[in-house]
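REVIEWER CHECKLIST
Item 1: Sequence provided? yes
Item 2: Single chain? yes
Item 3: Sequence as submitted:
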Amino acid sequence: MRILVDLQGCQTKLYPDETSQFNLKLILSMLQCGYPAQIFIALNNQAPRNLNYLYHLFSEVLPKEQIILFNVVHEGHENDALEGWHWQANGLLTGRLLESYQPDLIYVPHMLASLENPLVAPQMSSGKPLVAVNFFDLVPFPEACLGLAPIQRNRYFRQLKFIKQADMIFVSSARLRQECIDKLRLMAHQVVDLDLIVQKNHSLLSVSHEKIENTADLMLAQWFKLYQKNNEQDRPVLSKKLKLAWIAPSLPFSKEADFLLTEISKFYTITIISPLSFTHGPYFSVNYDYQDQTSFETRIEQFDRVVYQIGPDGQNDFIFKQMGLFPGLVILHQADIEEFIQTWAQIQNYQQTLYTEHGYKAIVFLKQYGEAATFEQFPCRTSLYLNDQDILCHRPSLSNVLAPDWSPLTADHNFLKKIKSACVETILESHAHQSIGNSYYQAIEHFYAEGLQDCQQRLRDEIYQIQEFQTDHGAFLKKIDQLIVENFTQSHKPRRPQLLIDISTIIMGDGKSGIQRVIRGVLKHCLGKKWTDYRIEPSYFDQQGQYRYARQWTFNILGGTTSLEDPLVSFQDNDRVLYIDLFANVHFVKNQVEALSARQIKIYCVMYDLFPLKHPEWFQPKLADDFKTWLMAMFHCATGLVCISKTVAFEVWQHFQQSNIKRKDEIKIGHIYLGCDIENTASLKGSINHNEEILKIYKERPTFLQVSSLSPRKGHIQTLAAFDELWQENIDVNLVFIGFPYFNLLGPWLDGLDSHPERNKRFFWFQELSDELLIKSYQATTAVIVPSEAEGFGIPLVEAARYHVPIIARDIPIFREIAGDYAYYFSGNTPSELARTIKKWLVLYQDQQIPNSALVHCQTWAETGEQLLNLILKNNWGLINTGVLF
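Item 4: Structure as written out by the authors:
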């Protein structure tokens, strides 16, 4: 017997009230009883009061797969009609999810826990599954509800309605049992007295351990009795056959084929659809009808089921055409099906098929090696199913051809994987196998009933059909759509876990900043990585806060094409999430990481620096507060923090220690280094300002190049003022800025750049260049100057070093870590001090005595991506691990 316990009643603001504590003890005792029961625990993910505690409590005694976290939309409403609609919609959402685990009984303890935060009562389908509840106090009594506010009174009666519909109700005393029978008009056999409270002021907390064990045993015994009685009742049978279209490239010309269709016709009214002309033959039975393809296409609505039989005749073009128009169930007869599968994949959008089956790594491979090699390396065995077709195999061996790394499935409906195979053994080998028709019937009906997309769509239809449904519920329905995907994915798990890489900011526009160069460089490596365990998926928050796969954006940067939309992300418990981008909306991120953490999904983020905390004056006013909120969410919920240098890792570790964060587990803090090969971080905007006339600038006189966004900490003001002094001294040098202004935080100084007397003479500013032209700028310049007051890494240092360009840098710890002794350092904060540094450097340059930047350690973005994946997927943490420096 499978029992599912809905623990919402222990997640209210009242916790830890005595009733909740008692119920938890009772359920833990049930887990120790000797009854042959499999118990699942369901927790409301939107009720985080003690979500983490409950999850950890039960994860110690139950497999993780038996703890369900479900989502509902919680919105406070003063409008009772609107709240009533939300109540029903959330009830359907919860009920259908719990039913998808196929429980025999759902137990909802402490149903009347709170009227301030009402529980979502799961709404069950008719005849599914049994429902039991408990409550230990009927107060407020129905007649006393008149004193409540209308919205609270209606909440109370909605909860009572759910209780009255339960198959079994457990109460704490004989007095309460009689009250339920009298006041709620319940049947006597519905209400069971647990005999817990014998005195008026007796507390549930004083119930002995022995009594709790006996009570748990009594409740299980009652459930088994109810379950057995329910199973003894006759179940309804179909009174009318469904109409089935059997689409085949040829008519049945063998007695085996006729036998198969005759057996199936016991369950369906069959019509054969074929491109061949109808002719009576010895094996064409009166048990089925015939239509040509034109009649079928105009009358498709008359059929309840569509089945495609793939034949050996080489006439499958007709099948392909129909499959593209009318999704259905595909029957495979031959073990040698590779050619057929590949042909179907090519008929579809091939790139799209590759992605759906194998992920972006197959798209990257296709671009590098071509179609022939890709066919061999990434066969599209499951493209039929992934284009809205289900697959039914005659023999178990065929499921191994389709998916050799998956376990075969059986006709007992233990469907563990997405590709479904009835495996009806040697179906055509013997006429004596009289269960063949029933096997097909059961498999076909299961496919139509249990398909994940079908389940989701039926639930949407049910919600839209609620009587109080209004067209202005659009925002709520969007949230419902997200939650349907999240909920149902738990019970229909994808084949492989995902590594979701958040790109919520860069997807709105590539500002070509250092952080966005990191994202481009890391993504290019990760998307092409042949990880067998994890599917790499860029993802983002849309403007409504819904989390989506970034399919269109990713196909675009890979040079591919797709008609796929960006669907809502479906999480599973063994997924991992990497926040590599700037946070687009701190509240979206905070809510998400808290919910994911409760499910013990591993969360990682890339830490670039702590400057918004240390120097809020360098940023927009709101950003410092948002950054602190984001950082605290990561400190509490993240599995690991990936820093871009040892310096940042040490600062993050120090701040974590000073924050006195209390966690149940230790946090990992490690570091990577960033890449320098610009050609492998191709800008998403393409070739912007690719005017090679710009390169003449570098040939006219010694040129100093600064590559960075224009913001207060980058040192542009000091640099330009220093060069003003050099020009006044008739030192003939160029200064070139390449970078966007950062939110115009430099104010009037930035506005004055266009009117600078040396503008486009010896001072040049390019807001955006193509990456190719940026590389040529590095190669042509005399020196790169990096005067930043603070950095988390300093990408221009290693980019300059890659092209052996001399470096002049401010003397700060991070630059010493990255460039070592191979840069020329300065310390002054005034223009004159920097001007003197440049004059000294020019003398050393003439004497060939400057530091050799070619000796700076550089690495590629592929190496950076590999370091990152080794941390978060292989747990190879470096400098700092579990919050302890070593």
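Item 5: Key structural point noted by reviewer: The radius of gyration is 34 Å.
Item 6: Recommendation: ____
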